[in-house]
Amino acid sequence: MSKYVVSLTRAGRRQNLQSQLEGALVQTKGVQILEGFGQNSLTVLIPDRVVDDLRSQLKYATISDFYELDLL
Amino acid sequence: MSHQIWIESRREGNPTGTIDVVAEGPSQQPQLFPGIQPPVPLRADSPFEVIYITVLDGGYWILKFNKPSGRLTQIVPRLPQGPRGWWHELHCPNGAGADKTIKIGVIDEALPHQEPGSSLAHVVNLGGAAWKGPVNKNRAFQSLGNHHGLAVCSLLTARPAHPDGFEGIAPNATVYFCAAGSDTDERLNPTRLANCIDLLASPDYECDIITFSSGDGDRPLPNIEIAMEAAADRGTLCFAAAGNKGGSPRFPAKYPDCLAVAALGRAGLAPKNTQEEEDERLSTSLPNGLFFWHASAQGPGVEFLGAGVAVFRTEPSGGTFAMTGTSAAAPIVAGTAALILGEDATYQSLGRTRERVNHAMTALRANCQNLSAGAQMGPLVAP
Questions:
Q1: What is the spatial distance between Cα B193 and Cα A8, in angstroms, rounded to a whole number?
Q2: Which residue of B has its CA nearest to A12?
Q3: FRET pair for B167, CA 20 to 30 Å: which of A7, A59, B98, B298?
Q4: Residue B170 has pLDDT above 80, yes or no
Q5: Cβ–Cβ of B194/A64 closer than 8 Å?
Q6: pTM attached to this predicted model
Q7: B66-90 burial by CB neighbour count: b if 16+ within 10 A, else e?
Q8: What angle separates helix B326-341 from helix B148-157, to the nearest 10 degrees?
Q9: Exposed/middle/buried for B182, CB within 10 Å: 0-12, 13-18, 19+?
Q10: pLDDT value at B1 more than 50
Q11: How far is A11 from chain B (nearest CA, A)?
Q12: Residues B227-238: pLDDT tens digits?
C-alpha cells in the first residue's frame, strides 16, 4: 500500500470526469482517497498490486508517485 | 579531541545586545550557543567545520567562518536600509507603478493571519481553501519551519511601516496566498499545490500570475503539469523557482507552461566572512556588475533570471533579513511581470484564454535585457 497522486488528464478535465474518477477509485478494492474530493488532483492510497491495473483502466487519469517538494 | 574557539563579535553601531552562534562539525548536529556575550569560548568534542554568527532579530548580515580556529573577531555589519534595494533598481528602475489591476497568486507552505497594520495585511490569505478532505486546515496558517511563505510574500509585496524597511517588488498588486504545506514538515504537498493552481486560476479568483518557490523534484509530477497547462488555457502565467541544485531545471520547473526563474546576484555587495561573499566567489560573472548564482538551475528551460542572492526582506515583525535562492528570484520576477503587464492595455483587454498568455510572453520578452549580449533593454533579464 503506497500513497499516489491521481490526476485527471487534460481531456478528463474537459469532460468534468471528477466524480467518475472518484467512483472508479472507491470501487477498486483496497483503494482509499485521502484528499482532493471533487478536485482534479487527489492523494490516494493504492495497494501496490493493483496500481498497474488501475493505470491501464483509467485512460483519463494519471497515477504518479506521491512525494513532497522542497522549498527553495 | 577538545577544541576551543574564542569568539568576539559585536553589532555594528550597537555594542550591546546578544548574538547567537551556531557551530557545525563533521559528526554532530548543529549546536546553538544562544545569547553570547562576547568574548566567549566554545568547546566541542570534534573540530567545528563552520560557525555562523547571527543577530536573530534581523538587520545584520550573518557571519560565516569556515574551519575556524583560535580567536575570531569581527564586527557584525549592518544590512543596507530600504525601502528599495539593488534588485528594485535592476527590475523596476521607474518605481512601483500602478499595478493594482494585476492579480498575483502565491502558493507556499503557510502564511500566518496578519493583523491590521501588518506589512502584509493587504494579502488575501486563502489558507487551505484548496484542501478538500479530512485535513487540519489550521496547518495552512502555521509554518513548520522558517516561515518561507512569509519570506516570499515579503519580497513580493511587503508594505513596511518603517521607512528603513524594504518594500516588496510589487507592493500595490492584488495578492492572494494559498497554502500547500505538507502535514509533517516544511515542504509542499503535490496534490495541494496542483489544486491551489486550479483555485487561483479559476473564475473565482482569475489570477493573472501565479508564483511558487518549490521544486527540485526528481520524478514527474503530471498533476502539476496539467494544472499549469489548464491555468495557461485560462490566461494565467505560472512562475516557479528553477531550482537550487545546479544543472537543468527539475520538476515541475521544467514543464512547458512553467516559467522557470534562475537566480543572479549583485557583485561587490556582501561583506567578508558571509555566505553571500562566498556565493559571489563561487559564481560566474555576468555583464553589468551581476553574477549568475553558482547553485541555481540553469540552461535550457530557464525563462528568466531574477535577483536571488542577498536580497533583503522586511517581515511584518519589522526585522530585515538577507535571503538567497531561486525562491527569492521567482516572486521578484513575478512581481516585475505584474508591473509590466499592469501598464499593457492590450493585455488587459484580452479574454482569459491562452492568447492572453501568449501576448504576455511577447510583452515580457520585449522587456528583457539579454545579459549574454550585454544589452540593456528592460527590467526583466533573459538567460
A1: 15
A2: B226
A3: B298
A4: yes
A5: no
A6: 0.94
A7: eebeeebebebbbbbbbbbbbbbeb
A8: 30
A9: middle
A10: no
A11: 10
A12: 999 999 999 999
Q: How far apart are CA B17 and CA B360, in angstroms?
A: 50
Alpha-carbon distances, residue B357 vs B102, B104, B213, B305 (angstroms): 13, 14, 20, 19
Q: CA end-to-end span of chain A, whole Å?
A: 30
3 state DSSP class of B106:
strand
Residue of B nearest to A71 (CA): B214
Helices (H), B70-186: 86-91, 148-157
Q: Which residue of A has its CA nearest to B186?
A: A71
**B172 to A1, B84, B175, B312: CA distances (angstroms):** 48, 14, 9, 18
- pLDDT above 90 coverage of chain B, percent: 74
Which residue among B226, B229, B244 places its CB closest to the CB of A72?
Answer: B244
Instruction: Delimit the domains of chain B by residue range.
Output: 3-76, 86-382
Is-contact B233 B353, C-beta < 8 A? yes
Q: Tell the CATH topology of A2-65.
A: Alpha-Beta Plaits (3.30.70)
Give the whole-angstrom CA distance, residue B22 versus residue B28. 12
Rounded distance, CA B230 to CA B208, Å? Answer: 13
Angle separating helix axes B222-233 and B354-366, nearest 10 degrees? 90
Are residues A34 and B133, on separate chains, in Cβ contact within 8 Å? yes
- HSE of A12 in the Cβ direction (CA atoms, 13 Å)? 21
In whole angstroms, give the CA distance from residue B214 to residue B347.
Answer: 28
CB distance B108 to B143 below 8 Å = no
DSSP-derived 3-state class of residue A54: helix
Distances (CA, A) of B167 to B94, B100, B120, B179, B193: 14, 15, 10, 22, 27
Q: Name the packing angle between helices B354-366 and B326-341 (round to 10°).
A: 100
Q: Please give the CATH topology (third level) of the domain spanning B86-382.
A: Rossmann fold (3.40.50)
CATH class of B3-76: mainly beta
The yes/no answer to whether this complex scores an ipTM above 0.95 is yes
